[in-house]
Amino acid sequence: MDAILLEATATTPKVILDPVANKFEISGESRPENTAKFYTPIIEWFENYSSVLYYQKSSGGKTKKTSMEFKLEYFNSTSAKFILDIFYKLEKIQKEGCDVEVVWHYDERDTDMKESGEEFSNYVPGLSVRYVGY
Questions:
Q1: Which of 53, 112, 124, 114 is nearest to 84 (CA)?
Q2: Which domain holds residue 50?
Q3: Domain total for the chain?
Q4: Residue 37 half-sphere exposure, CB side, CA atoms within 13 Å?
């Protein structure tokens, strides 16, 4: 399965979805002009990743823990919908028996960002979310 590696721009976050290196991260600012165009390949990637993990697990193989790191400084409301979709994809992976964790990084002075992570986790209460202030 191919990785997605996108460098941050002024309006889009850095994205690392690398199953070989077992590194999963979205960081920076998310306010793309066309949010659906930016995030749809990422959502589709998670769907494919879920299938790969399911196949590995059903074939008796072991899967590594998927630790998805969000290090967002800002995201707009249309990005929020797609971030929530990623949470749902991670929940699906977890329900299929894989070890999944979300790590939500936030500036301790930015209580809104921490609350945003908590709101996302309220929609997927079974998903393990760890909050890391800096």
A1: 124
A2: 4-133
A3: 1
A4: 5
Q: Produce one character per residue of 11-33: b if its CB has 16 or more CB atoms within 10 Å, e if not.
A: ebbebbbebeeeebbbbbbbbbe
Per-residue pLDDT of 20-76, as tens digits, reads 999 999 999 999 999 999 999 999 999 999 999 988 887 887 888 999 999 999 999
Q: What is the CATH number of the domain that holds 41?
A: 3.30.750
Compute the distance between CA of residue 93 and CA of residue 8 in angstroms, rounded to an integer. Answer: 26
Structure tokens at 43: 């959502």
Q: Which residues pair with 68 in a beta bridge?
A: 24, 102
Q: Which helix (H) or strand (E) holds 102?
A: strand 100-106
